[in-house]
Design goal:
Number of strands: 6
Order of helices and strands: HHHHHHHEEHHHEEHHHEEHHHHHHHHH
Largest sheet: 2 strands, antiparallel
Shape: globular
Number of helices: 22
Structural class: mainly alpha
Radius of gyration: 21 Å
């Protein structure tokens, strides 16, 4: 019953209007910024390690790592698997489309966040709430507050806490108690193992120690963990691709056929269905947004405190996050799963077992790489644990800043929120995978709507700022 209600709300929030709005936003900004995600991508990567001068609290690299810490998480490992399971292999194609357009969106929202940020005595605050209030005018402050409310809900109930801790404990349980034979307790018909309970407690305590330390501690942890874990996971994905190179063309054929509604039907024929396209688009774009957060409005909150006087420069740096997150890391996961699904033996096991989330990803990687799968599952558990842990930290920061805007900087309320956030982490393992991801989809969609509206309205400012910057630095 609960899952049915959530699914009904999700279908409304992620209906055709929201999908069109997000894609249209990316398309408009791509045109207004003259396709800089294609023409200036090399320059963007060179800017990552550049040291800038200006107001702010973080370096550009620290801000990027903080943003990546919130994006490279369960969305890359669990989210891709749930998207393919629900929307078919074609969901991966729509993830790519959303990411390509979303790169221009990420550039624009982060650039505007720096342009319209609020420089206070002891810190800098910025994000879509100030972009809306200052860029669109005071009469639109209600829309800014609405975005901030949705941001708090997304951090507390969706992408920031329950999906991440749920993904971690699922991976821990799969690695240490795959048969779920050591039961700690039951809630209704659902049993929870000691691996799940202990894993949840350890992550909650570790998260609490960092969260209570504030932004600089979060950014320092992110700087160390994110690059190392991304490299390890990409190495794992590249190993799959190299070892299964001859099967990659078949995987791409399956992805494209599924994306445009072609699928196998009785007798081995190929059928076309509009529902297949709709499901692929909905799940692919929703999970793509969950993963890279382009258009969601979260990354601009991390970009705002950067030490820079050039908003466009940091916008370029932050747009690389979408490339790294979706076009590289998510693609590694998606291709690994699709490669496995093209094998009849694996597909039969998948249909019989009904694998979901991390189970599907782990079994696909194990199948692709061969062997007993134990070492692969353990390595995947480590990657997922660290990815998801940094996402928990990053989203605490995002949602805190949204709350700070709503409450006009009442830090006592922010501290109380931190305690509630930690409590949400603690209870996250005891929800179903489908429920937590559906809640995350809903809150993500609600955040994206006011943010995308503001980006379309302010697209002229994006075009003007971008043109001015590259006229000022013509050699870049």
């Amino acid at each position: 019953m609960f899952d049915s209600i959530l699914n009904a709300i999700d279908d409304v929030v992620w209906g055709i209007p929201t999908i069109v709005l997000i894609l249209a936003t990316g398309l408009v900004l791509t045109i207004r910024a003259r396709g800089l995600q294609f023409t200036k991508l090399g320059r963007a990567f060179k800017s990552i390690f550049k040291e800038n001068e200006g107001h702010g609290e973080l370096s550009g690299f620290s801000a990027l790592c903080t943003a990546l810490s919130a994006t490279i998480g369960t969305g890359n490992i669990v989210g891709v698997a749930t998207a393919i399971a629900a929307g078919g292999p074609g969901a991966l194609f729509w993830m790519w489309i959303a990411a390509i357009l979303g790169t221009a969106t990420k550039f624009s929202e982060c650039m505007l966040a720096i342009k319209y940020r609020e420089v206070k005595e002891d810190h800098v605050l910025g994000g879509p709430f100030y972009t809306i209030e200052k860029g669109m005018g005071k009469k639109w402050k209600w829309l800014a507050i609405l975005f901030a409310i949705f941001g708090v809900l997304a951090g507390l109930l969706g992408i920031g806490t329950m999906t991440q801790i749920n993904g971690i404990t699922s991976a821990v349980n799969m690695a240490f108690d795959p048969t779920s034979s050591h039961i700690a307790f039951k809630i209704g018909e659902t049993s929870y193992t000691w691996a799940t309970v202990i894993g949840g407690i350890v992550v909650t305590v570790c998260a609490a120690l960092v969260i209570l330390g504030g932004l600089k501690r979060i950014s320092k942890v992110a700087e160390k963990i994110v690059p190392a874990m991304a490299i390890i996971y990409v190495f794992l994905g590249l190993s799959v691709i190299i070892m299964n190179a001859t099967r990659i063309p078949a995987a791409f054929v399956l992805i494209f056929k599924s994306a445009f509604g072609f699928k196998a039907i009785a007798g081995g024929a190929i059928g076309w269905t509009l529902k297949q396209i709709t499901d692929s688009m909905q799940k692919g774009i929703a999970r793509g947004i969950f993963s890279n957060e382009a258009g969601l409005g979260s990354a601009p909150i991390a970009a705002a405190p950067v030490q820079t006087n050039e908003p466009v420069e940091q916008g370029l740096v932050n747009m690389t996050g979408t490339v790294i997150d979706t076009l590289i890391v998510c693609t590694m996961t998606g291709l690994s799963i699709v490669l496995a699904l093209t094998n009849p033996d694996f597909f039969a096991q998948y249909q019989q077992a009904g694998w979901k989330g991390v189970e599907l990803t782990a079994n696909a990687l194990s199948f692709d790489l061969g062997g007993d799968g134990v070492s692969v599952q353990f390595l995947l558990m480590l990657c997922l644990a660290f990815f998801a842990f940094t996402t928990i930290l990053g989203w605490d920061y995002y949602s805190e800043k949204c709350l700070e805007y709503i409450t006009n900087g009442r830090m006592k309320l922010v501290f109380i929120y931190r305690l509630i956030y930690i409590l949400a982490i603690a209870i996250g393992p005891y929800f179903t995978v489908n429920a937590v991801f559906t809640i995350a989809d809903i809150t993500n969609g609600l955040m994206a709507i006011p943010n995308c509206i503001s980006l379309i309205v302010l697209s002229g400012i994006v075009a003007e700022e971008t043109k001015t910057y590259f006229n000022k630095y013509p050699s870049l």
